[in-house]
């Protein structure tokens, strides 16, 4: 398995690593990586790796077999050999925008009190699909609520909880907009706000900013009707 450095510290942009495998498709597997793999609506990270006097551009990262993360080169070039010591670097500007949008979507899921059925993230905007029969009453009101969450500069933290601990706290699960997955071992909970007065608490394996103020001003974009029971709401970073 690949050690997920982006889980331990989402602000880590560079890291040394050792090449443990190549995939048949020309991908690279490292023992530890800062590259977030495509998943949960968030695109995989891009960047580059260096070894000796070589530099290889990485287009994206994806999940591979056995909890491994595969770095996908941008062009078919010679790969670093097995056992090579490399240094990996993220396209930080792009990843940080993903972190801002991702955290903003948590806030959107709180401000719109309907079940979320899907979502996606890019470096300029994100969207969530809601199980929501009617349109929004007031989009300005929603935009204001989101920007208040941002201005409150609430702390974003994460921790792990066992299934047994969750079972012992049914009221906790009840307050969560997204129910934790079961049967897969310990669950990572992401909290926005204080220990006992959180804005949002939900299971999530993604990358988040440390405080909501870092998201910056938000703007509601298009609101589309996707079927009789569904609304798609777009959210944009203002800068
Ligand atoms: Zn998240």
From TrEMBL:
GO terms for cellular component: cytoplasm. It is found in: Cytoplasm. Keywords: Hydrolase, Membrane, Metal-binding, Transmembrane, Transmembrane helix, Zinc. The chain crosses the membrane at residues 104-123. The keyword Transmembrane helix applies. Gene3D superfamilies: 2.40.30.130, Threonyl-trna Synthetase, Chain A, domain 2. Its cofactor is Zn(2+). Residues 1-233 form the Alanyl-transfer RNA synthetases family profile domain. InterPro entries: Ala-tRNA-synth_IIc_core, Ala-tRNA-synth_IIc_N, Alanyl-tRNA_Editing_Enzymes, Thr/Ala-tRNA-synth_IIc_edit, Transl_B-barrel_sf, tRNA_SAD. This is Alanine--tRNA ligase. GO terms for biological process: alanyl-tRNA aminoacylation. It comes from the Bacteria. GO terms for molecular function: alanine-tRNA ligase activity; aminoacyl-tRNA deacylase activity; ATP binding; metal ion binding; nucleic acid binding. SMART domains: tRNA_SAD (SM00863). It comes from Sulfitobacter donghicola DSW-25 = KCTC 12864 = JCM 14565. SUPFAM superfamilies: ThrRS/AlaRS common domain (SSF55186), Translation proteins (SSF50447). PANTHER family: ALANYL-TRNA EDITING PROTEIN, ALANYL-TRNA EDITING PROTEIN AARSD1.
């Amino acid at each position: 398995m690949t050690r997920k450095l982006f889980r331990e510290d989402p602000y880590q942009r560079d890291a040394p690593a050792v090449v443990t495998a190549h995939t048949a498709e020309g991908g690279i597997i490292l023992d530890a990586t800062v590259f977030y793999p495509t998943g949960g609506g968030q695109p995989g990270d891009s960047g580059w790796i260096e070894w000796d006097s070589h530099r290889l551009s990485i287009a994206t990262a994806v999940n591979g077999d056995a909890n491994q993360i595969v770095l996908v080169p941008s062009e078919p070039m010679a790969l670093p050999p097995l056992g090579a010591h490399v240094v990996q670097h993220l396209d930080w500007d792009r990843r940080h925008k993903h972190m801002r949008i991702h955290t903003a979507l948590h806030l959107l899921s709180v401000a719109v009190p309907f079940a979320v059925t899907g979502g996606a993230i890019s470096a300029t905007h994100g969207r969530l699909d809601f199980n929501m029969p009617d349109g929004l009453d007031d989009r300005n009101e929603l935009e204001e609520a989101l920007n208040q969450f941002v201005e409150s500069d609430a702390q974003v933290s994460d921790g792990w909880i066992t299934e047994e601990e969750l079972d012992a706290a049914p009221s906790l699960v009840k307050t969560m907009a997204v129910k934790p997955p079961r049967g897969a071992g310990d669950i990572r909970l992401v909290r926005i706000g204080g220990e006992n007065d959180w804005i949002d608490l939900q299971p999530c394996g993604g990358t988040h900013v440390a405080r909501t103020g870092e998201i910056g001003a938000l703007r509601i974009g298009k609101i589309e009707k996707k079927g009789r029971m569904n609304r798609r709401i777009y959210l944009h970073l203002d800068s």
